[in-house]
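go over whats below:
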Amino acid sequence: MDAGQTLYISSQLVLGAAATFLAIMLWPGTRDAAWMLVIAGTIISYIETVYSILNVFGIGIEEYLLVGSVSVIAVILPTIRTVSFIIAFAIMIRRQSRHI
């Protein structure tokens, strides 16, 4: 692994950990559905990052959960993250349209 890959992996882990830590700290203080979905999406994003880094090092379980040649987990994690953001943004748009 060269210096560029090490820098990329380190930055993804450190910044993702910081975002996830702050999201977890925010979670108990909010009861808003949109914010909870954004927090969940942030946590899932970090899980996705850790999972992909484990696969780079050959530690993942990617070869056991395949549909054809595609890993089920590699499809599910980004999908859940994106769907949670979509629902959160839709909730916020709906709220804003009520106030106009």
Observations:
- The chain has three helices and two strands.
- The mean pLDDT is 91.
- The beta strands are 66-67, 70-71.
